[in-house]
């Protein structure tokens, strides 16, 4: 466990998370997810977390490990075509992870998702949370439209509304 990381997490306030992802930004993210999902069969879920729960922080849980835990807990894997995708933002660590279920992972290499993550982190580093998130959703949608195009019928299986933890 790194002392600087613990201090960064303990000092990260819910107010900072809500300032970065204010109501208009959350509404824009929700609308972008809904619009994106009309173009492909993927199911996007956006989750931003200010700081890790203390027990996880003390265990040294990484942003990737936390994303995997949330992927399971939020049942993002539980879609008919195994098409769930988690965009996870860990604000205190300043890190973004994208996890794709096996139906998507079979068609889209992780390197494509990692490039979107690094672009988001860059935008967030500039304080541009809204545009960084919207660009990531747009980029993910373009990838999914090419490799997992929309079908005639595609139910909305996961909430479009972003989740703040």
Explain how this protein is built:
This protein is of the alpha/beta class. The protein has a single domain, classed as Diaminopimelate Epimerase, Chain A, domain 1. 53% of the residues lie in helices and 13% in strands. It contains eight helices and four strands. The relative contact order is 0.21.
Keywords:
165 residues, alpha/beta, Diaminopimelate Epimerase, Chain A, domain 1, four-stranded mixed sheet, 8 helices, 53% helix, 13% strand
Secondary structure layout:
Blueprint lengths: L2 H9 L2 H7 L2 H15 L5 E7 L4 H6 L3 H11 L10 E7 L4 E6 L1 H4 L4 H16 L3 H19 L15 E2 L1
Helix pairs in contact: 3-8, 7-8
Task: Summarize, please.
The chain has 165 residues and is α/β, with parallel strands linked by helices. It has helices spanning 3-11, 14-20, 23-37, 54-59, 63-73, 102-105, 110-125, 129-147; strands at residues 43-49, 84-90, 95-100, 163-164. The chain has a single domain, classed as Diaminopimelate Epimerase, Chain A, domain 1, CATH 3.10.310.50.
